[in-house]
Write a structure and sequence with these properties.
Length: 179
């Protein structure tokens, strides 16, 4: 599970992310960029995060700060959405809403992000073959993110959301040790 998803507020966050996705329709990429900009600007800066989540700071001050900082940088739909979160005291679950919105946007665009972990750098022709096989198997547009971890010795691990396909030598050796 993604570390940015707050499990206890997931139902509420799903409703907000779904409503925003429905409203965004043709502007899904623009809204996604807007949410990323807000996430990066506010939630990656401890002082701003504290300001917007602090219960003593008035709603009026928070709204003015949002408008001043973002009014010409994000579309009106996203700005209204942020103001709604502030009005309903739900800005604290923004990161969860953002993560769920990304998933919903990917579903709308029939896109699937996949993590490939290998011990060494994978050659381009193998990357292309892997992408084509996964694209065909999942019937989705796939985006492969590659990382290296020398602990797996050889082979690779494929992570698709919560599913893990472990084709690493380390796991095969550990399996052999059991017998």
């Amino acid at each position: 599970m993604n570390k940015n998803i707050d499990i206890k507020n997931i139902k509420i966050a799903k409703r907000y992310s779904h409503a925003l996705a429905q409203s965004a329709e043709g502007n899904i990429d623009e809204v996604l960029e807007n949410l990323k900009a807000i996430n990066d600007a506010i939630f990656e800066n401890q002082d701003l995060k504290t300001f917007f989540l602090h219960p003593v700071i008035s709603l009026k001050d928070k709204k003015e700060a949002i408008k001043t900082a973002l009014e010409n940088k994000i579309n009106i739909l996203t700005l209204n959405f942020i103001e709604t979160l502030l009005d309903e005291n739900r800005f604290g679950i923004f990161k969860t809403i953002y993560e769920l919105f990304k998933k919903e946007a990917d579903a709308i665009k029939n896109k699937q992000e996949i993590e490939i972990i290998s011990a060494v750098d994978i050659k381009e022709n193998l990357k292309e073959q892997l992408e084509e096989k996964l694209k065909t198997k999942l019937n989705k547009n796939v985006v492969l993110n590659y990382t290296q971890n020398q602990d797996i010795i050889g082979g690779f691990i494929i992570k698709i959301e919560d599913k893990v396909i472990d084709l690493s030598l380390k796991t095969k050796f550990e399996t052999l040790k059991k017998y």
